[in-house]
Automatic annotation (TrEMBL):
Pfam families: CBF (PF03914), RRP36 (PF06102)
Protein name from the UniProt record: rRNA biogenesis protein RRP36
Functional note: Component of the 90S pre-ribosome involved in the maturation of rRNAs. Required for early cleavages of the pre-RNAs in the 40S ribosomal subunit maturation pathway.
A GO-annotated cellular component: nucleolus
Domain spans labelled CCAAT-binding factor: 22-66
Family in the record: Belongs to the RRP36 family. Belongs to the CBF/MAK21 family.
Keywords, sorted A to Z: Membrane, Nucleus, Ribonucleoprotein, Ribosome biogenesis, rRNA processing, Transmembrane, Transmembrane helix
Residues passing through the membrane, by range: 20-38
Origin species: Zea mays
Compartmental location: Nucleus, Nucleolus
Length: 129
């Protein structure tokens, strides 16, 4: 974003409203604070005030929780698991007489994203049932 301060007023007013709207503005406001130097003194006070049963029972909670899951970093062992799985397949292919194929960094990233996508898909299916 070329000028993040444009969103500042909108997100702070949305956050001040309270309830579900505050939850939806939370992520954008946090990004402005951490990456673009926005100062919002009452952020944590209001954040703790948001933690009520109404917010967790809201219609948009699944979007909020999915957003948090997407932004959370995968465990460090995911990359090594993907590499081990690839090495096993290539070892089997090499014993069958095929030439081994080395995994590129971009392909590794793609596989991590696919794993994350599948995890989110399963979480949504579990929540829906």
């Amino acid at each position: 974003m070329s000028n993040p301060s444009i969103l500042c007023d909108f997100l702070t007013r949305s956050y001040d409203i309270g309830g579900v709207i505050s939850v939806m503005a939370l992520s954008g406001l946090f990004i402005l604070m951490t990456q673009h130097g926005l100062e919002y003194r009452k952020f944590y006070e209001k954040l703790y005030a948001l933690l009520t049963h109404v917010v967790f029972m809201a219609k948009h909670r699944s979007i909020f929780l999915q957003d948090k899951q997407l932004k959370s970093h995968p465990p460090k062992n995911v990359e090594s698991e993907i590499l081990c799985e690839h090495i096993k397949k290539e070892r089997e292919a090499a014993t069958a007489g095929k030439r081994p194929y080395y995994l590129k960094k971009s392909e590794l990233r793609e596989r991590k994203l696919m794993n994350k996508y599948n995890e989110l898909k399963l979480a949504i299916q579990k929540e829906g049932s």
